[in-house]
Amino acid sequence: KQEVTQIPAALSVPEGENLVLNCSFTDSAIYNLQWFRQDPGKGLTSLLLIQSSQREQTSGRLNASLDKSSGRSTLYIAASQPGDSATYLCAVGHTSGTYKYIFGTGTRLKVLA
Amino acid sequence: DGGITQSPKYLFRKEGQNVTLSCEQNLNHDAMYWYRQDPGQGLRLIYYSQIVNDFQKGDIAEGYSVSREKKESFPLTVTSAQKNPTAFYLCATRQGYEQYFGPGTRLTVT
Q1: Interface subset of B 72-101, CB within 8 angstroms of A
Q2: What is the pLDDT of residues A81-99, one digit of tens each?
Q3: Residue B41 has what DSSP assignment?
């Protein structure tokens, strides 16, 4: 059974720091991995989608990498800003053909001004 | 204005009552999903539908029911059989491998 873990659960950093959020999964047979941002009381906003054949994706200050063999993905945020404060979740898509996704519990990020 | 709408944003019900959460989309996506989110936990899949008139149980379907009579709509009914219905409910669609989420409905049952 696929399990997805995100460590740390919470992170507090000063503005301007570069930071890395981690997502680990137990079964490497995945279709894709998607990173989301969630603000308090809101829905999820898609940040980056990495297909299983890709190694990384970039959007602005965000870079996500995927290493299927080690069961890991990282989300790199460059030059963090207070507006980046949110919970970041990763979701792994199965290869079973059912298009089901397993979510991690998220990393709650606070960027201090 | 394309997107996913969930209504209402907040919903309050008495224990023992069934309640239906609305999810509407105008993205023309075939697949739709319902998730439940509890504090400190990740999203858990309740039901999903790959196409109209077809749906499958997710990991925590007990106490819930759905219908998919139209491509645009995927309502979720929380029945009185659901033991702990108070939660944040999120509806999503899928295009290719990418998921898109609605704003969510917070259900409180007392």
Answers
A1: 88, 90, 92, 94, 97-101
A2: 999 999 999 999 976 667 8
A3: S
